[in-house]
Recover the amino acids of this structure.
């Protein structure tokens, strides 16, 4: 059962994509950091990439988002900070909803690919999945049980991939972003 979106909302989504695709190409990564931290791009690059990935995800530009998530995962490093976790949990909080995560298995597969890229990727995807809990809760409270179950299914798929990666079950495979 597809989620209904009115025509005006679809037009806003398409126009937002045009604007934010352009911003992604034109703005330097440091522009995604708070004003007082833009000089620390070496130490804050992962946060900036995660922030930009979240912005692009919320605007439904998943190819760009997944590329940034992959780059952030490749940086590895220390465990995610509270700030990074908070940023990632907002990725599915678009004002237009996030039906694509339950309607497009390729998106779940691509995000799972980020998780399979290594421990840093797994930690990133874990926080994205945690953000989906709010979608499940909202649908349950609205009495939309089937929709809640579909969001829960996507959340569970992502978390199972994360668990496999963090317990070293199965080989790492690259993520794919061709189908968005």
């Amino acid at each position: 059962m597809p989620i209904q979106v009115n025509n005006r909302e679809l037009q806003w989504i398409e126009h937002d994509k045009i604007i934010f695709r352009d911003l992604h190409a034109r703005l330097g990564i440091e522009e995604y950091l708070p004003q007082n931290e833009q000089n620390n791009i070496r130490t804050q690059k992962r946060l900036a990439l995660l922030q930009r990935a979240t912005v692009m995800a919320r605007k439904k530009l998943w190819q760009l988002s997944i590329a940034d998530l992959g780059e952030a995962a490749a940086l590895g490093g220390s465990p995610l900070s509270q700030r990074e976790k908070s940023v990632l949990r907002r990725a599915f909080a678009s004002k237009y909803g996030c039906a694509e995560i339950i309607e497009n298995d390729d998106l779940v597969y691509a995000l799972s690919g980020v998780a399979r890229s290594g421990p840093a990727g797994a930690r990133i995807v874990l926080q994205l999945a945690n953000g989906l809990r709010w979608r499940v809760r909202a649908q349950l409270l609205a009495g939309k049980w089937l929709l809640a179950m579909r969001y829960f299914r996507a959340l569970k798929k992502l978390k199972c991939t994360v668990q496999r990666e963090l317990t070293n079950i199965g080989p790492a495979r690259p993520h794919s972003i061709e189908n968005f």
